[in-house]
Amino acid sequence: MSSSQNPEPQPSAESSIGKLCLVEYPHPALFRKSKPLLRIDGGVRDAVEQMFDIMYESHGVGLAANQVALPYRMFVVNVTGDPDSGEELAFLNPILTRPRGTAIQEEGCLSLPGLRADVRRPQRVVVEAWSVDGQPIRIDLDGFLARVVQHEFDHLDGRLFTDRLPDAAGLEVKRDLELLEDIYHGKQSRGELPPEDIIMAELDRLEDQRCKS
Q1: Which one of 65, 80, 87, 176 has the minimum C-beta count within 10 Å?
Q2: Phi/psi at 117 (nearest 5 deg)?
Q3: Exposure of 209 by Cβ count < 10 A (0-12 exposed, 13-18 middle, 19+ buried)?
Q4: Does the residue 212 lie in any domain?
Q5: In a structure prediction context, what are the per-residue pLDDT tens digits for the chain, which is 213 residues long?
Q6: Which of 105, 17, 27, 22 is nearest to 56 (CA)?
Q7: 17 part of a folded domain
Q8: Cα–Cα distance between 180 and 28 in angstroms, integer?
Q9: Closest C-alpha among 73, 79, 90 to residue 38
Q10: CA-CA-CA-CA torsion for 54, 56, 60, 63, nearest 10 degrees?
Q11: Rounded to an integer, what is the distance from CA 18 to the centroid of its chain?
Q12: DSSP 164
């Protein structure tokens, strides 16, 4: 793995991130390209544990840091969606290579509640990353696991599965997205969610904390 493309995060002193929660469209974190982690601390390890908990509580099979308002290149996966079965995988600073084949399958997203659509993706792909223990990961993925990893990787680039839909299908979900926007901005107007400038300032702070040398 190239350190320039996939930097190895270094252990550092404990630093709390705090309680995380799932964010929904159109939260700014969902459109922000995540930065590679340069440090793994207690806050990162705790965040990974919380992300698994949130994923299971929401009946998901994958969750990216963007979806809990963290600007870091990391995501978690368990294709069974069951904390008592399957394999829990956490990928830090992942890169994807060697896409092969094509498959179409229905996808949904925890940050886009109620939306589902068929998405075309490569059938196979190689993921290289680091574990929370600082160990290198390299897996040749196929089938559903390959799809989940690609879906979560898209999140790290600020991309949603709806961005991959052809024009006709994109028009079909447009009204649903507008409804989610109305719900989100309604919560902001009632003070249930912070304003955009406060959200962006917190994303900047978190990024400065672990993504800058």
Answers
A1: 87
A2: -160, 160
A3: middle
A4: no
A5: 433 468 878 766 557 899 999 999 999 999 999 999 999 999 999 999 999 999 999 999 999 999 999 999 999 999 999 999 999 999 999 999 999 999 999 999 999 999 999 999 999 999 999 999 999 999 999 999 999 999 999 999 999 999 999 998 889 999 999 999 999 999 999 999 999 999 999 999 999 999 998
A6: 22
A7: yes
A8: 13
A9: 73
A10: 40
A11: 18
A12: G
- The Cβ-side half-sphere exposure at 133, using a 13 Å CA radius, reads 4
Quote the number of domains for the chain. Answer: 1
DSSP-derived secondary structure for 188-208: HHTTSS--HHHHHHHHHHHHH
Active site residues: 152
CA-CA distances (angstroms) from residue 42 to 14, 22, 86, 179, 180? 5, 20, 25, 38, 34
Radius of gyration of the chain (CA): 17
**Residue 21's domain spans which residues?**
10-207
Report if residue 73 sits inside a domain: yes
The answer to whether residue 3 is domain-embedded is: no
Half-sphere exposure of 42 (CA within 13 A, CB side): 5
Which amino acid type is present at position 178?
A: E
- Decide the pairing of beta strands 74-77 and 62-64: antiparallel
CATH number (domain holding residue 43): 3.90.45.10
Whole-prediction pTM: 0.94
Tell me whether residue 57 is exposed, middle or buried, using C-beta atoms within 10 angstroms of its C-beta: 0 to 12, 13 to 18, 19 or more.
exposed
